[in-house]
Amino acid sequence: MSSKLRKIGTGGMVLLIAVCFIPAIAGAFAPGDGRQDKGIDRKGLHRSALGIWRNPQMVQKLELTPEQVKKVREADFTFREKQLPLKAQLESLRLQMEKVFGDEVVDNAAVLSLAEKISDVRGKMFVQNIESRLALGKILSADQIEKLKLHTMHQKRHGQERGKNCNPTHHSVERHANKMLSD
């Protein structure tokens, strides 16, 4: 009888370990590797400079008028709404690419086709991003654009000293402001 209880106890422990630890281990190798910047809203996925209206310090530093804040906010929502289908399409294509590379025999033609589609979507997103920067340039005054550039340079220098950027929103604004400088 005691060997039967031992088998039941051992089986229960194995079941407990399986229920508790296997999901945790599986999560360690999930897509994204546990990084928070993965997914549709990851950094570098064409965030708009129009998001400055969400940062009260930037609104104050740039001395935006209520009318400018309203225009930037409306343009930001329009931009983000246009980006949603492209972001979803990009994530779908990435998932398809992951599936193709996961096959035992990789279909080179399928990989190249998916790569072209990904490139096309990224190109569309890039054009929309440029349009958002141009829209911001029409809303801000020359003085405000200059303040934004100075803020960007300061933040970039400050972030590099620490070896990281403090806030992804600031990083996005910095990147886009620098692009405005080069245009």
How would you characterize this protein structure?
It is a single chain. The protein contains 6 helices and no strands. The chain is mainly alpha-helical. It has 2 domains: 1-30; 50-182. α5 crosses α6 (168-182).
Show the helix and strand layout.
Elements: H1 2-28, H2 56-61, H3 66-102, H4 108-139, H5 142-162, H6 168-182
Helix pairs in contact: 3-4, 5-6
What is this entry, summarized?
This protein is mainly alpha-helical.
Summarize the helix and strand pattern as letters.
Answer: HHHHHH
Q: What's the β-strand tally? A: 0
Range of helix content: over 70%
Q: Quote the beta fraction.
A: under 5%
Cα-atom Rg, whole angstroms? 24 Å
Counting copies of identical and different chains, the oligomeric state is single chain
Helix vs. strand class = mainly alpha
Number of helices: 6
The main pleated sheet reads as: none
Mean pLDDT: 74
Give the N-terminus to C-terminus distance in angstroms.
Answer: 83 Å
Number of domains: 2
Uncertain segments are: 21-46, 161-174, 176-183
Keywords:
single chain; 183 residues; 6 helices; 2 domains; 75% helix; mainly alpha
